[in-house]
Every structure is written in structure tokens, then in C-alpha cells.
Sequence to fold (1174 residues):
Amino acid sequence: MVILTALSAAGLMACTVTLPYLTGRVIDDVLRGGDRGALTSLLVAAAVVIAVRFTLGMLRRLWAGRVSLGVEFDLRDTVFGHASRLSFAYFDRMPVGQLMSRATSDLQTVRFFLGYGLVFLFMSLFTLILITGLLLWLNLKLALVALLVGPALLVVAVRYSRRTAPVRIDVQQKVGEVTQAAEESMVGIRVVKAFGRERERTDRFAGTARRAFERSMDANRLESFYQPLMGFLPSAGLAVILLYGGSLTINGELTLGEFVQFYLYLTLLMGPFRSAGMLVGQAQRAVAGGERIFEIVDAVPDVREAEDAGPLPDGPGEVRMEGVSFGYGDGRPVLHDLDLVIPAGTTVALIGPTGSGKTTLTELIPRYYDPDGGRVLVDGADVATLRLNSLRRAIGVVSQEPFLFSTTVRENIAYGRPDATDDEVRAAARLARADGFIEALPGGYDTVVGERGYTLSGGQRQRLAIARAVITNPRILILDEATASVDAGTEREIQDALRAVMANRTTVIIAHRLSTIRLADELVVLDGGRIAARGTHAELYAASPLYRDIHDGGLARPDLVLGES
Amino acid sequence: MSTSRGPAAHLRARPEDDMEGMERPPSRKLRKLLPFFAPYRGRALLTVLLMLVVTATGLAGPALAQVAIDHGIRAGDEGTLVAAVVLFLAAGGVGLVAGYWQSYLSSWVGERVLLDLRTALFRHMMRLELGYHERVPTGRSVSRLTSDIEALDSLVTEGATSLIINGLTFVGVVAILFAYDWQLALMAFAIFPLLAVGTGAFRVTSARAYRRTREKVAEVMSVLQETLSGMKVVQGYGRQKPAREAFRRANDEYREANMQTVRLSGLYFPGIELLSGIGLLLILWFGSNRVLDGDISIGVMVAFIGYLSSFFDPIQQLSQLYSTFQSAMAALEKVLGVLETEPTLGDAPDAVELPPMRGAIDLTGVTFGYRPDRPVIHDVDLHIGAGETVALVGATGAGKSTLAKLIARFYDPTDGTVAIDGHDLRTVTQASLRDQLAIVPQEGHLFAGTLRENLAFGCPGDITDARLVSALEAVGGDELLAGLPEGLDTEVTERGSGLSAGQRQLVAFARALAADPRLLILDEATSSVDVRTEQRIEQAMEALLPGRTAVLIAHRLSTIRRADRIVVLDQGRIVEQGSHEELMDLGGRYAGLYGDWEQATTGWAAGTA
Fold:
């Protein structure tokens, strides 16, 4: 396809070049030679060339379009495919907006260059070579004079792109600041209104917008200087040819037909010359965009499956941590040489101050991150030796603010088991005590939820996520309790749901509520990445001052409101 | 205020406001833009004049070449040849200088107008009442200010120039060719009707194809956005493959839609070339015969061929402009839509300054609904004495936040009056009201800038650092300040600043205290807090409440008990009010809530409160 595109482009240029030749022949043979009979055959030849040019032009555009869209498709597909293999640490670092802009606007600059710019560049180069050859063949002296313009244009074009590129980047930066300023004021509109600071905000925004305007004018000034200049240089060349070629013709060294041909060829060169600057700019943008895309594609997932990774062996769901240390790579260790065994089928509540490593500890079990030292074992198998999907399918995770997809409630619940029957979906919802509110939704299980659908409350989202986790019947359940305030009645409902889903499974709960720790078989108190104490409530209350402190002051109680239900 | 968007906000306005196709005619919209050009009409006029010069010098080239060929080269007259070439160069030089100024000025005027439009749009958005911002998602307002203005940018700066220069070139070419030889000109323009019909058809079909492409690319974006946001869930459930297939489908549909635009332009642009080729054939055939008959010179025929491309280029350029024009018009419609939304809460023409407040609030027969047919507050009468602290208590949707918003006049009641110190709020200026009240929202929103700027946000005049620091200390923020390396000069941006939610909340408390309002409205955060945080909040209240009227939207018992009076709301009505003890004695709703709570918090273990 690429070769076809190139061939059709070459043929196209040949056609375009043939027409001035035929025109020159008409002038010399027919008009000056007086051979009226030759006119018809020359015109027929021209008609054929024009028809061929039309056909090739269509094919060229079609093929080039298909290639460039194909490249865009493949690149985007590759970026997506690669992104879905990258580990959690990567998404912690890279904001979604950044990834989005790389997969869209950066990708388009690459596509524009590959699809149109490159074909254009090729056509321009081909035209340049072909016409230069023809000019040299027609008249060596005249051609050498004419081609003097070339190097001058090249110098100007390179200077132009060198000077504008940094300014353009800065303009993009300033435009980004405008977006940020707009977003900030809109998000904080309540505060602005509450303090009546509308005018001050407007002045600030106007200042930001003005700076973007000024920088943009810097870029425009450069463009206004270079673009007319790049249009003028070829015209100047044309003037020289008119003068020099004209006197050659007067002296009889050139026929009028040859001169006209020469002149018309030269006008064909104007296009490629003029677009040289634009192409250089486009190429620069494409290279910058490409770099940003390949940053994603070249990123190596931190968590990789071993070559000989095997499936998770059957087992009751025992979790064991041996000498586990972990940090997020910023030099601050989060977990220190931690040993912990969670017997199969039991429920362990993790408690501890913010930043004590509770969430991190749970994220090592499904191998969202790899520990820096030590190992994590599930049913006796080191998680680093297992196939990721096999391990993760056996573990249900309910995060504090669960993410729901913009689709129906049913599909969200069945996410980990798309083949689940309606009855199974309902049973999972019942187990999570989510059936009541789901049935009250306008479309029941067919209600679309998520970012582009019906807005659920935090507690409802979490119960939906619990249903999603239990439908796969995981042997291990990890649950990060929501901190949203609920009233006493709702709290009771949640406790019922937890009790139901915890039965016959190993469960790790990050507890924020007083009522939740009552459900656990054992409590593990974390402090600064170490296990400070573990045991039952009675044991810990007697032995651990930290636990006593958290229990009396650090756990939430229900609020005195009729919260969400 | 509460972040909930009023009842049923999620049920309406769900489809993105794609108003393409149901808009007013472009000329009416563009007329609305004219006032923005008015201040710069001198420059705009100069730009148009320069465009005339640029076009004229561009058109002079082939004409001068014709003179050089006919009267110089063919006549063997070197003097004429030199003169023609000098003029040719001079025209180029004038074009160069005029081109610089034209290009600079037209981009200046265009971007300047858009700067003014953007600022006007922002100012207007700031004037629009809170209700508007609660209805319209933030993202939509931001894209009005950014991507829509940028869509107009390409029209106003490049589009207008291209339109005028190409239009002038077209007209100029037609005039010159007719001046040379009207018969040959007629022959060359014989293809014009075909060209017009073809261009018209292309315009219509390509507009449809481009719109489809835009829709499909939006779909790719939303699938991408959602999958990337939910990547942890995708990976957690091992659903990478189906997710990629779904993405591939969207990606492929986009490619197909885009291929249609490629097909259309693959037909149109070579079609234009075909027509220009036919024009060339006609000129060669008919022109040759006329040259041989002695009616025209060879130079004229060469000039005709030279001008032929100047005739087709503008048409191609203008038809490319059409899609730019369309998206700019769609953007303009949205921008005008905002500008034409009248603020419903403007100051009355005869509004007076609210004198320094004592702070007595009276709600008389107040009824209100976000939609008039669905009231959420029913006929409420409430008197809050100057200096009194009142806690509003009730379930989600009982109307606590709404009542507070009515007191701050973010909304006007549908029926009844809200008055402060006997002044109906509709009769006073909003600025004089807002200067005397402060609101602590559920989530402490900080603006980009220093801690000092954020603390002083509510103080209209200058305020000393000492007062800001003492405000921060009074609400228990001394530790926060001590932990910041640059003190008040620390940049506290909205995200990634290192300030935790709790610290932001403290800044919001201090901000309110620094403003020293006569009336304080406090919306307590609903996320559960542990006892330590609760203690900190209590310290802040201790500093904030004395000496002013306060309305608390309260969730926590500690906050509620701090109030002089508790007002229990249910479905937009006041059902009980009184002190904690009075309400407990009453044994009604409040006592019931309290009983539930007590049961849930006490019981199983020793040492529990």
C-alpha cells in the first residue's frame, strides 16, 4: 500500500510535469510553426494525461488516507494494549489526562505527518528532482541561475522553524495555564460567590489569558515575517529567469516555446518551495509527539509474569508474608521487614493511623506491586511465580472509592464473570445487601451507572463493588472500608452484608469503623510500616496502648443524621 | 454549601449539549460578534486594505510576465523586458512588506478579539448565579472558555484572511481574464457551473462525514478515558483482552468514519484538478485558434494558463475552509448561549447597601424549589436572633443546605421573604451582603497562589500578615504553618500541594475567621472523622462562633450540642426546634435519632464512649 501510494504519487507528478511540456509544444509547433494539424494530436495527448492524472490522484488520496488511518489505528491500539499491561505504579505516577493527550493529540500529529506530510514531502522531493533535471536538460545556464533560489530558501526555512519551535511550545504552555485558571475558578465557584470575589477572579483570569495572547503574538510576528519571505524568494527567482531567459530568447539562444516551458516548470516549483517551511514544522511536531507516545510504549511494567509462571494451586486461601519490605520508590519505606500469617478462612482487620501501611499491605497480595524484600505467599505459592490472572481471579478487591464502568448495574456486577446468569447476579447483589437499592433504581438492574450514568452514593457504589467481588467467588477478599458518613441504620445494613460475604473466605478488612472490628477474628495494629500488636479486642485493649488510643479516639462512629440508604 | 447538585440533577442535561444542526443562521451569530471588533475597527480596516494590496501584487505577476513575453521578448525590446521585470520584482517587494503587516495585524485583531471575548465570557460566568453553576457541569464551562474559543480562533485569524484574500483573488482573476479577451475568458469559465455544483455537493456531504468523524472520535476518547481511569479494576479482574476488543471496535469505527471523509476528498480534489485540466484543454484549443487567427497574442495565452491555477486555488482553499467554519459556528453558538443567559439574581435597580449587620435573620413564609413545580422548602418561618448559633439537623434532602443557600442569597425564594436586620435581601446589593458573611464549605477549596492569598481571599481590603497568622493559629493551624518551609509564601495549589484534606479544611476555617464576618454559614463535612479530628474542629469552632450569628449545617453531635438552638428539618419543613435537652424531653424525631446513635456507639466493649 505504501509502495502503491508512492508509485501513484510519482505518476501524478509525471503527469503534472508533462502538461507544460505539451503546452510548450503547442506554442512552438502550432502557434509559431503554424502546424494546425499537430494541435489535435497534442490536445488528445494532453487529454489523456489529464485523465490519467485524475485517476492517479484519486487512488493516491485513497491509498495515502488508508495508510495514515491504518497507522493511527495501529499506534493507538498499541498504546492502549501496552497501557493495559503496565503496572499500578505506572498509573500512580502518570495522570489519566496525560495518557489521554498522548493517545489523541500527540498521535494525530504523527498521523498527519505520516499520512499527509510524508507523501507531500515525497511528492515535493520528486517534483524538485524531476523538474530540476528537466530544467538542466532544457537549458543548463538558465537552470543554474534559477536554482540559486533553492539554498536561500532552505536557509530561511530552517531558521524559521528553529526560531518558532520554542515559542510555539511556550504558547502551548500558556494555553494550558488558561485552561487551568478556568477550571480552578469553576471548581471553586462556591467559594468565589460566598466571598463575593468575582471581580478579582475575572482580573486574574484576564491576566492569564492576556499572557497567552502576548506569547501567541510573538509566534505570529515570527510567522508574519517568515511566511511572506518564503513566498517572495521564489518570485524573485522567477523575475531573474524572466530577465535572463528573456534576453537569451531575444539573442536567439532559446526558442520562445522553450522559454515558456521553462517558465511554466519554474512556477511548478513554487509550491514545493513554499510548503518546505510548513513541512519542517510538521515534522518537528510529529517527532515530539512520537517521542511522547513511545515513552508509554517503551515503559516496562514493574510487575512482570515470570517466564515459567504457573497457575495458583488449589487451596483454602492462606496468606503469608515473610520479611516483606516495600517503598513506593521515593526513598520512603512504607513497610519494614513484616511477617504476617492470615490463616485460611479467618477475618483479619487492619487498623492503624493514616500512613501506617494498611492499604499498601493489602495491595501486595494480588501483586499490584512487588515487595522490595521478602515474599508474599498465597496457599504456599510465592505470588511472583504465578500467572497474574490466575492469582487475581482468586482475590476479590473492594476499594474505598470503587470505580464503576458506565454500563448497566448487571454488567458491572458481572464484570469479572461475563457469563454469569441473571440469577447469579441477583444472588451476588443480595449477598452484598445491594438488591434493595438496585431494584429501586429507575431501570433496576438495567440502569446505567458510572461517570456517564446514574449517580450512586458512595455507600451504594461500595455495595455494588462488593457484589462484583463476590460473584467470582474469590477465596480471598480484600476490603477497604469507606469513610463516608452513614447513619446508624445504614451502618447495620453494611455490617450484615460484610458478615454474609466473609463467611468461608479469608478476608482482610481495612477498618475505619468501630462496628467493623467487631466482625474480625483477629486485629492487626500497624504503626509506621510495622506490626505493633495483634490479637483479639480484649487482648489488645489490655496490652496495647496504641490500640486503646485508636479504639477510643481513632475510629469512626455513626453520625446523628439520616444518611444515605 | 453541599456539593449535591439539587434534586434530580443527574436526570436532566445528560446528553452532551450538541447543538449543531439546531442553531440560528451563521450571519445572525456573526453579527453578535461584531461589537467585539468595534474597538479595533481602525486596525481591521487597515488589515483589509493590506489584503487588497497583497492580492493585487500577487495578481500582477502573471500580467507583468505577459508584458515581458509579448512586448519584451517577442518584440526583441530589452528595455521593456527590463522594465517589466523591475516592476515584477517591485510588486513582489511591496507584497512582502504588505504581507508582513497584513499577517501580523490580522492575527493581532483576531486574537485580541478572542481575548476580549474570552474575558467577557469569564466575567459573565462569574456574574451568573450559583444555580447556573450547579446545573452546568464544570467541564462544560471550562470547555466553553478553552476549546470553543480556540475553535473560533482558527476562523477569526486564519479563516477570515483566507476568505478575503481568496475571494479577492478569484474576483481579480475573473476581471483580468475578461479584460484580456472576453471570448477566451467565457470559454475558460464554461466549467464554472460544474465546479460550483461539485463544490456544493462536496460541502454538504463532507459536512455530514466530518460530523460523524467527530462523534466517533469522541467515542474513542470516552472509552479510552473510562478504561484508563478504571485500569486497576480491569487488571484486577483480568479483563484486559475484552477491554482491548471494545477499544478496538471504537477505534475501528472511527477509522471507518474517517475513511469516508478521505473518500470524499479523494473524489473532490482530483475532480477539481480534472476540471482545471479541461479548462487548460479549452484554452489551448480555442486560444490556439485565436492566436493563429491573429485575435490574441501568445503572451495573452500564456497569461491565461498562468491565471488558471490562481482561479482554481481559491476555490479549493475556500471549500477547505468550510469545515473550519462549521465547527467555529457550532462553538460560537455555545459561547453565545452562555453570554445570553441572563443572571437571575442581579441587583435590583434601586438596591441599597446593606448597613453593617447586627445579624438578625427572618425567614417569613419561605417556599422554594430548584424547579418551581417541585418545592423543597415549604412555607418555612424562622427567626434567628443576632449573635445566635443555630444548628440545622435532618436527613439528606431535608433542605438544610437549601435553607442556608437562601440565607446567603444564592437563590431567591419562590415565595415569602428572607430578611436580615429587617432588610429584604432582594432590596440590598449582593456585594454589601457578601462582604459581611462568610461560608465554610464542606470541602476546603484552595486557589493556585500562596497561602497568604488564600487566607486573605475573603478580606476585601488589605490585611496584615499578623492577622492572617493569628486567624490560622486561632483555628488550630499553628502546626500547619510551622511545617511549611516558606510560611505564608508557600504555594498551595489545588492538587499535589501536600496539603491534606484536613489541612485544607483548616485553611478554609482560617479564611472565614480572617474575613471577620457578621454572619457565618458552616457546612460540616460528611465524611466520618475520628475523635482527634473532631477535637481539632471543635477548637476551630471555639474561635469562629463567638460574637456573630452562625448557621451550622451539622452532622456531628459535638457540633450540634454547641448550638444555642437545634432546628430539625424534614422534607423541607421545620418539625422541631429547641435546645438538646428540650428536644430530648420532647421525645420526638431528634430524640429518636439520638437513641439510634447511642445504641450504635455503646455496648459491646469496655472503654467505649
The first helix of chain A runs from residue 2 to 32. Chain A has a mean pLDDT of 83. The domain at 2-139+254-297 of chain A is CATH 1.20.1560.10 (ABC transporter transmembrane region fold).
